[in-house]
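Hi support team,

I'm filing this because I wasn't sure whether my run with adenosine-5'-diphosphate finished correctly. The job status page said complete, but I'd like someone to confirm that the output block is well-formed before I use it downstream. Pasting the exact inputs I used:
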Amino acid sequence: MDVFKSKQQVSTYIIHSQEEEIKRIALELHEGVGQNLYSILTGLQFVESAAQEPHMKNYLREMESLIEKTIQEIRLLSVELHPPALTTLGLLPAMKSYIKLYTSTFGILVDLESTGKEKSIPERNNIAVFRVCQEALTNIAKYADTSHVKMNFIWNNDELKITIHDFGKGFQLEEHDDHHHSSGLAAMKERMLLTGGQCTISSKIGEGTSIELSLPL
Ligand SMILES: Nc1ncnc2c1ncn2[C@@H]1O[C@H](COP(=O)(O)OP(=O)(O)O)[C@@H](O)[C@H]1O
Ligand SMILES: [Mg+2]
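And here is everything the job wrote out:
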């Protein structure tokens, strides 16, 4: 029992340090790299306005639009790594903004519904649940072969329930259970267990895959 407890503490510690590191990288991308690119863009615009030769001017304009595109990509990457809304606004708004990005990237519509009164969740659990949903949605984009996902947030007094159903092609769960080298699905279960909650995965060939999460509040 003692061993199990300390193993759980080690997992929690490792996940927490990784999340801190991801947050640092996301901020550095946004504030550091993003800001520097913005300064370079401003400098180029200045040089362009002073340039006389037409094809030098054209070349500088091309460089500017390339840098603008890069700034945009860095912004998206940073949000994907660590959505600022997760800390400031909470799980549901962060999920909504992630879904916007997801739909525009993969062309998969996510119908998100929330019932009950939204509650605030401690940061560690917030991140855990967010990552588990992110992994579920990534799997759907990779494997489900679907264009429609239904996601439900159900807020009860002492529990948040989240269900994700993909209406996709489904898969044989037995081949991908815990004894298999399936890191994504196993990590989803592990992360939910560390929050004191649960993650249940079910799938039927031809009908799709369902993920059910529960988090004690
Ligand atoms: N929503 C889904 N629809 C269909 N197949 C899925 C879905 N989610 C997972 N799978 C199947 O389960 C396997 C294991 O998923 P996962 O553990 O996340 O590993 P990975 O994403 O690294 O392949 C996938 O390779 C895929 O075959
Ligand atoms: Mg996966």
